Structure prediction request, 225 residues.
Amino acid sequence: MPEVKFLGHACVTITEGNHKLIIDPFLTDNPVAAAKADDIEAGYVLVTHGHGDHIGDAVSIAKRNDATVIGTFELVNLVGKEGVKTHPLHIGGGHNFDFGRVKATIAHHGGGYGPDASQYTGPPVGFLVTIGGKTIYHAGDTGLFYDMKLIGEMNDIDLAFVPIGDNFTMDPDDAIKAVEFLQPKKVVPIHYNTWDLIAQDAAAFAAKVKNAEVVILKPGEGCSV
Ligand code: NI
Ligand code: MN
Prediction:
């Protein structure tokens, strides 16, 4: 049974047996990071989009671990120039890896890299990760979209990471609707309380979600899927 751990902001790890994945490894310069990039062990580094608070330490973690970076074709071409192993995906496409499957889903957001996000890294995505017989959805940075209903209908989602921070992504009310659409068994709110701009009351969000178990993880905490 896979275990997930929240490392702050949108960064999570998924561990199943010997398989270690990290998604959106923004740790250096992350004021709420619960780990140091140099301490991360991972065989795969999944990156939803090029913004610094997601791509973060992807290259250094991948280099040190000889890990494979998974992201859009545009994003992995950019990080591939740093000499790391990569696997390109694109929206609607999935691939079977040794640990399970990753499928890229749409996300409505921006997708550039660099201080002003001007280096094109393709559209942002979310990920459906199937591992150890469980399906985990990381929405990435996105606004609410109605196709989440389709994602929920076509996938038996055991755990969903959804942003609730507002300003750059869904706010808690939109995230509640997202959870209605996705029908996950568990939901973990992310992308909030990293900075004042995205401060939110996760307990208030949890109290309003009716169709899933909300697991509020503090940075450094985890749960089974
Ligand atoms: Ni972003
Ligand atoms: Mn973000």
Observations:
- The domain at 3-213 is CATH 3.60.15.10 (Metallo-beta-lactamase; Chain A).
- The first strand starts at residue 3 and ends at 8.
